[in-house]
Specification:
heterotrimer; A alpha/beta; B mainly alpha; C mainly alpha; A: alpha/beta; 2 domains; five-stranded parallel β-sheet; 15 strands; 43% helix; C: mainly alpha; two-stranded antiparallel sheet
Chain lengths: 407, 290, 346
């Protein structure tokens, strides 16, 4: 009993100090204080299946965070990986097992939105904490839960920070054409594009929907070409983006129009696309390893040392999800889920994209989204120097408009 | 109008690739009564082989040739080691064994190359657009159409005008007759299987600059090849060509008319054909009372 | 109680202890139901269907939607949920079968019929997936059908049993499975079952004797769809959601693989195949992400050396250990259809 009282006192102290410094100066929790119990952080990642390449990268980012950061924060944390097999059903069952059998309460994961949503519900039901990288708006919107936090920017911000600045840069490019994967995420991006174009006096002259499994885009590109747009705006992600871009270049669309990829996946994707195709293409991104921030200048060498190259967005994302859990536990000085959730709500910290903050109302991290532009091969200083950063900013719908009611 | 012309051209390009994949499947089924679920894996390996050889040598032509040769060799080993043991079994076992082989090959690709998609650059001299009267079309895609058409012509000659072709057609009619002629049916099967695999690998190699290489592409190609075979008539060369072009053109036109449903068009076509004309659009010449 | 039913009963009791967790044991029993359907179709109908995932998925959506929106006297009852899923699966299979089975007979020369059936069911699986993917208003599309509650078992009046606890739900699934096994075991040993074997062994002769081959096959296909739908409904309330993966083509593949792995010689094969596949996948996926390679090798080896699947290996072992108790193990038929007699009728 007395133990828990003293802990709560420390929590109050720690909380006040953290709020005052407004950085992650959480090493306040010195050895003199009672450290929180040892705990397990479980990464539910797509280790096999079609999303395995992303899952493997996220997983090693999370593991690196636990291995390097937990000792610094004075925490005894172990990291375990659970393979979702790319299937929400398996993910839910395995996350459930972790909770009921091993008593695990802390989860990160969700390279696939569908899996993120499913695990989010399951972890919430059992009273855990889940930090996700899932892209679906619903995660911190209509399907938000008390347990779920999301690090990356949602569709609203991605469109605001790409379409709007591009409209300012190219005021005469008024005819836009979108290629949209037909499912919830694509629809959400399209809705936002339509709104921003309307607000900035441009016109959406056409949109083509394609299936999530499509790999051959000649038909859609021909459609786009016939509409004679100024900007071809791609709303797909990962493998499909690479295929569409490559084929758009074949069809000469890059010379006749400006190409914008609203949701690009970062370094690993750029390597797969290649500099010749990327040259001159505008890209929206969550992270780029050449960001000039204090945190990033620490993270890049860390990843270089661990994996022999600069971090990809997937790795950073995996790292940040795990870090948020660790920060939460350190700030709460407790492994009690409710206290960790309380500690995370409103947390301000120095992140890889600069100062970041966890919004209490919907558990969405407020961080930058970037507009990048592909460099010509000649201007590249190193093999990974694919893009230049054009602009950055934070855009999030006000809490009242997210549709999140469960928090 | 120009839009539909372009879509037609897209459809023909798509159809020619489908043809290269499907014709191998149909040859193997026609002659050996064997459903090869691993056929898509040859297409997959063709693309990955091209990627690797291209990285080492930088030559696209060399890469394609080496990839096709390597896959042909693999197909030879597979035919001898796996297929020869199961020809006599029911088709269910053909499907299962080759399904197992597919799992092995697909996973081996992920193991050897990583699950991430790989990129193959379009050969330098085939980049850009070719102007054809009022409209321009990607040069590389035109090249694919031309090369695949030449391939089809060569195959037609091989099957209709040579001794090998006569044997293949004869073997499809009746194994006994061919055996009586003193022909080693086993060797015929082997040659036939390796040829089919090489064609699929060639298709994979040709498309790699367009869509890159990724571990899922084999399954995708197999599904399309099945559709093509059913639409065209399983076991028939001209059926494979007609079916492939029909599916390709239908899909391309559908992207103009029905966007997201384009992927479904092929399956609807297939179901319709199975319902109305189960033997396919262009079935093999009557087999008599085989 | 026959040996088959007894074996199932013993396995169902042992599984929660043997398996790494109760949810995993539950998943095994659920998929065993779907595998039993495929088993029946392959082992007795002689047909390989790549469309079982479609019926499984339809049952899952039906069960999930019922659990979400069902109300009134017919609402919130796990029994109705499962019956509904079964009905939907069975009706869908019957409709597909009306067309597909006819084709089996029509083009049966040179195995063409079985291949046409396989391709048609494959097309059905694709179409079902596309439909579920596009009908986001009903299915939730790619995100899945979320927040599916788990209804209690209600036997009329005040008798309600809550299924929230893992073991309670396991017991419910076990009850459904035992019921299905008992019925199937009776079926395969009845005259209808013998007729099916006769058809599988020699279709022409069976038809000549006067069996309506197509009707028997349609009945088996309908039954297999019902079992898949039943499993789907259970899966929906087990997970509390219906993921799109419940209806994708991989689901169909998985069901076929589990069937073949177990072998179609005895109904026990379905449980053997399902349990070993799911437990191996669960264990291996944490050790080596490339475990499907092992699975592929396993399938090829089974086709080479043990076409009766794990069941025949197990039966062979038992036979070897107890030579005095010769079971009625048939030789593989020359055309390779599985030659084991159903049920160890000792």
């Amino acid at each position: 009993m007395s133990m828990s009282v003293s802990r709560r006192k420390i929590l109050r102290l720690g909380g006040a100090a953290a709020a005052a410094t407004a950085t992650y100066g959480l090493r306040l929790a010195g050895p003199a204080q009672a450290a929180p119990d040892a705990f397990t952080l479980c990464g539910t990642w797509e280790m096999t299946g079609s999303l395995a390449n992303t899952g493997l990268l996220c997983d090693r980012g999370s593991r690196l965070a636990v291995e390097t950061l937990a000792p610094k924060l004075g925490l005894k944390a172990t990291y375990v990986t659970v393979d979702t097999e790319g299937d929400p059903g398996k993910a839910v069952r395995k996350a459930g097992e972790q909770m009921s059998q091993r008593g695990t309460r802390f989860f990160v994961g969700g390279a696939s939105s569908a899996i993120a949503l499913a695990v989010s519900k399951e972890v919430n039901k059992a009273g855990g904490v889940y930090v996700t990288t899932g892209g679906a708006d619903e995660l911190t919107g209509s399907e938000c839960t008390k347990a779920t936090f999301r690090w990356p920017v949602a569709t609203f911000g991605a469109v605001e920070q790409t379409v709007r600045p591009l409209r300012q840069r190219l005021p005469n490019a008024k005819r836009w054409y979108t290629l949209t994967p037909k499912y919830v995420f694509g629809e959400a991006l399209l809705r936002n594009v339509r709104r921003v174009l309307g607000e900035t006096g441009a016109e959406l002259v056409g949109n083509a929907y394609h299936g999530l499994g499509d790999r051959e885009f000649s038909g859609y590109l021909t459609e786009a070409q016939a509409a004679r747009p100024d900007v071809l705006c791609l709303l797909s992600f990962s493998g499909q983006t690479a295929d569409t871009l490559r084929q758009a270049v074949d069809f000469g669309l890059k010379t006749s129009t400006t190409v914008l990829v609203v949701w690009s996946a970062g370094l690993d994707q750029y390597r797969a696309i290649g500099a010749d195709v990327l040259d001159g293409v505008y890209l929206g991104a969550q992270y780029w390893h050449e960001l000039d921030t204090p945190q990033n200048s620490e993270l890049v060498p860390l990843f270089r040392k661990a994996f022999g190259g600069p971090p990809t967005y997937s790795e950073i994302s995996g790292y940040m999800l795990a870090r948020l859990i660790l920060e939460g536990v350190a700030k709460a000085q407790s492994t009690d889920s409710r206290q960790v959730i309380g500690a995370l709500e409103g947390l301000r910290y120095e992140g890889p994209t600069g100062p970041e903050e966890v919004r209490a109302a919907d558990h969405q991290c407020l961080k930058n989204y970037y507009l990048l532009k592909g460099k010509p091969a000649k201007a590249m200083r190193s093999p990974d120097d694919f893009v230049e950063i054009l602009s950055a900013g934070k855009s999030f719908p006000p809490p009242a408009e997210t549709g999140c009611k469960a928090i | 109008m120009q839009l539909y012309m372009s879509q037609l051209l897209n459809g023909i390009g798509l159809g020619m690739i489908y043809f290269l994949v499907a014709v191998g499947l149909t040859l193997v089924f026609g002659v050996m009564r064997f459903v090869n679920f691993a056929h898509g894996a040859f297409y997959l390996l063709g693309a990955y082989g091209t990627f690797t050889v291209m990285q080492v040598t930088g030559s696209f032509v060399l890469a394609v040739a080496a990839a096709v040769a390597a896959v042909a060799l693999l197909a030879l080993v597979m035919e001898r080691a796996v297929l020869a043991r199961i020809y006599a079994l029911a088709p269910t076992y053909h499907i299962l064994a080759t399904f197992g082989v597919t799992l092995i090959l697909e996973e081996a690709v992920k193991l050897l190359w990583s699950p991430a998609p790989q990129r193959v650059a379009t050969p330098e001299m085939l980049r850009g657009l070719t102007q054809m009267g009022p409209f321009a079309y990607p040069t590389y895609r035109l090249t694919i159409i031309a090369v695949a058409a030449l391939c089809a012509l060569g195959l037609w000659y091989l099957l209709e005008r040579t001794r090998y072709g006569a044997l293949v057609r004869g073997g499809a009619e009746s194994r006994e007759v061919v055996s009586l002629l003193g022909i080693d049916v086993r060797r015929l099967f082997t040659v036939n299987f390796v040829l089919g695999a090489a064609l699929a690998a060639f298709a994979g190699a040709l498309v790699s600059p367009i869509r890159g290489a990724d571990p899922g592409m084999g399954t995708e190609a197999l599904a399309v090849a099945f559709v093509v075979c059913v639409v065209g008539g399983l076991g028939s060369f001209s059926g494979a060509l007609a079916g492939a072009l029909a599916v390709g053109i239908l899909q391309s036109l559908a992207t103009s008319l029905w966007g997201a449903g384009a992927g479904l068009v092929a399956y609807i076509a297939m179901a319709l054909v199975l319902l109305v004309r189960p033997e396919g659009l262009m079935p093999r010449a009557s087999r008599g009372a085989a | 109680m026959t040996p088959v039913v007894l074996t199932y009963a013993a396995a169902v009791i042992a599984l929660p202890v043997v398996a790494p967790s109760v949810p995993l044991a539950t998943e095994i029993l659920i998929f065993a139901l779907a595998t039993l359907g495929c088993h029946l179709l392959l082992g007795y109908g002689g047909l390989l269907s790549f469309g079982q995932g479609a019926f499984f998925g339809l049952g899952a959506y039906a069960g999930g939607l019922y659990a979400l929106y069902g109300s009134g006297p017919w609402g919130a009852n796990a029994i109705i949920c499962v019956l509904g899923g079964t009905m939907v699966g069975a009706v869908a299979a019957a409709l597909v079968g009306l067309v597909a089975i006819r084709r089996v007979g029509a083009g049966n020369r040179g195995h063409g019929g079985a291949v046409a059936f396989l391709m048609l069911t494959f097309a059905v699986a694709q179409v079902a997936y596309f439909a579920a993917y596009n009908m986001t208003g009903v299915t939730g599309g790619e995100n899945g059908l979320l927040d599916v509650p788990r209804p209690p078992v209600s036997l009329g009046g005040a008798a309600r049993f809550n299924l929230d606890a893992p073991l309670a739900f396991y017991a419910f699934v076990a009850g459904v499975l035992m019921l299905a096994v008992a019925l199937l075991d009776r079926l395969v040993r009845s005259t209808a079952g013998r007729a099916l074997i006769a058809i599988r062994e020699n279709e022409g002769r069976a038809a000549a004797v006067g069996y309506d081959v197509a009707r028997f096959r349609l009945s088996v296909f309908t039954l297999s769809g019902g079992l898949a739908g039943c499993a789907g409904a259970l899966y929906a309330i087990f997970l509390g959601l219906v993921p799109l993966s419940a209806i994708d083509v991989m689901q169909s593949e998985r069901i076929v693989v589990m069937t073949v792995l177990g072998g179609t010689g005895s109904l026990i094969g379905a449980l053997l195949g399902t349990a070993s596949f799911i437990m191996a996948a669960d264990a291996l996926s944490n050790i080596w992400p490339h475990w499907p390679l092992v699975l592929g090798v396993g399938i090829v080896l089974i086709v080479f050396f043990a076409r009766g699947g794990l069941w025949s290996i197990g039966a062979g072992l038992v036979q070897g250990l107890a030579p005095g108790r010769a079971s009625r193990r048939g030789k593989p038929a020359p055309d390779g259809t599985i030659g084991l007699q159903p049920g160890a009728r000792s």
